[in-house]
Amino acid sequence: MIKLESLSKHFGKTVVLDGIDLTIEKGEIVVIIGPSGTGKSTLLRCINFLEQPTSGTMTVGNLTVDVNRASRGDILAMRRQTAFVFQNYALFANKTALQNIAERLLVVDKWPKEKAYRRAREILEQIGLAEKADAYPASMSGGQQQRVGIGRAMAAGAEVILFDEPTSSLDPEWVEEVLGLMKQLASERQTMMVVTHEMSFARDVADRVIFIDGGHIVEQGPPSEIFHNPKDPRTKDFLKKILATNPV
Amino acid sequence: MDVLNVEYMLGLVPVLLRYLPLTLQLAGIGMVLALFLACLFAVVRVLRIPVLNQLTIVFISFFRGTPLLVQLFLFYYGLPQLFSALTVIDGVTATVMGLTMHFSAYMAESIRAAIVGVDRSQTEAALSIGMTNGQLMRRIVLPQATRVALPTLMNYFIDMIKATSLAFTLGVTELMGATQKEAAGSFLYFEAFIVAAIMYWIVVELLSKLQNYLETRLNKAYNR
Q1: Structure confidence by residue, pLDDT tens digits, B16-64
Q2: Residues of B within an 8 Å Cβ radius of A
Q3: Pairwise CA distance, residues A67 & A83, whole Å
Q4: CA dihedral of residues A194, A197, A202, A204 (deg, nearest 10)
Q5: What is the average pLDDT across A229-235?
Q6: Which structural domain, as residue segments, surrounds residue B95?
Q7: In a domain, B1, yes or no
Q8: Is residue A27 helix, strand or coil?
Q9: Mapping DSSP to helix (H, G, I), strand (E, B) and coil, where does residue A22 land?
Q10: Do A92 and B122 touch (CB under 8 A)?
Q11: Domain of B175: which CATH number?
Q12: Mean pLDDT score of chain A
């Protein structure tokens, strides 16, 4: 379970997140939508402490931290409970697909080599890239790299996987294979928070859609409700614009 | 023009070869120490550690901004005058100290640039899976920075090997010092120094081969 209480993030005088309260159940698939620059990515990055939140409390699994009192140990522990998938894949360029996935098991969880690589191979099977085990990122397509990025997040065995616009950098031909893998994870009830502009994914896969604007949660609910019966004018306006270019 | 005294040159080869190990030791030890120091400086600069950062900037500025020969004379002739305890510094030690500090100043900047050049998103990815800063540096950043910095670092190593010849001005009999003595005895300056030059050249060529080999290995991950 994830619980955010009055989570705020300021960049200088700019308030990017303004007291977010949010509870996500284990196994829930949450899709976050909203206009650019309204704090969607920042929210995910705060949960992973890639950004230091300005104030608030976060609970992930059995770990609760007041962000202002978080020690280095708390931050590491929080990061280990939350896995991140990046828009630009961010694979380790000096490591093969297999090593990218095994890295966390070896270095952070201190698994023995053999066990870590065995687990990494299982994940490669799951993401359909067993034959790319020894390939370096530079020799893989964008879609393959992002699947390895997801595989790396899966290896963490994290409470939640945070997806930050995972298909936005991809050529259109690779989008489907990445969304397909995410759907597979969703069907296994992996808790997920997904920031995306893929409205069809939100409609088909999400348990809950959250619309964020101006650092606030404006509206949330099941996809059928948000897409067919939005209440807030800002939600209506956003959906009208985005569905015009990305029809569901 | 007199004919080149080939016989003398051939006879000189084994004589001078005995001094080559000292030349290589000066450069080898100097390089290891300089690399170590340069990595420290680079990390201090990248992380902007207060006080140390400012000290490092001044250090780098001084040792890049003054001639190596001046630095060697300062260490060998100058320091013992100020501090009598330092008279124990012999020519070899002063040379290693000079080479280390001089070249670490240059290398620190290229290592720093290589570290900064590693894609920032990989740093975030490493932190996101819960790596510590040390693990991030050791496993992700430094291996990639090494690849970028290697050609320049090898250049400095080559430069350092040749710079060891300045040690003869501190009375150290390494390859250059030995050549100087031989030439002064035989008056065959051209023959003597061309033999020494060729020896330096061969050593540097061998190093270039090593550099090619290392580059091929380190680039393995980046070939499409």
Answers
A1: 999 999 999 999 999 999 999 999 999 899 888 999 999 999 999 999 9
A2: 119, 121-122, 124-132, 135, 139-140, 143-144, 147, 220-224
A3: 18
A4: -130
A5: 93
A6: 6-222
A7: no
A8: coil
A9: strand
A10: yes
A11: 1.10.3720.10
A12: 93
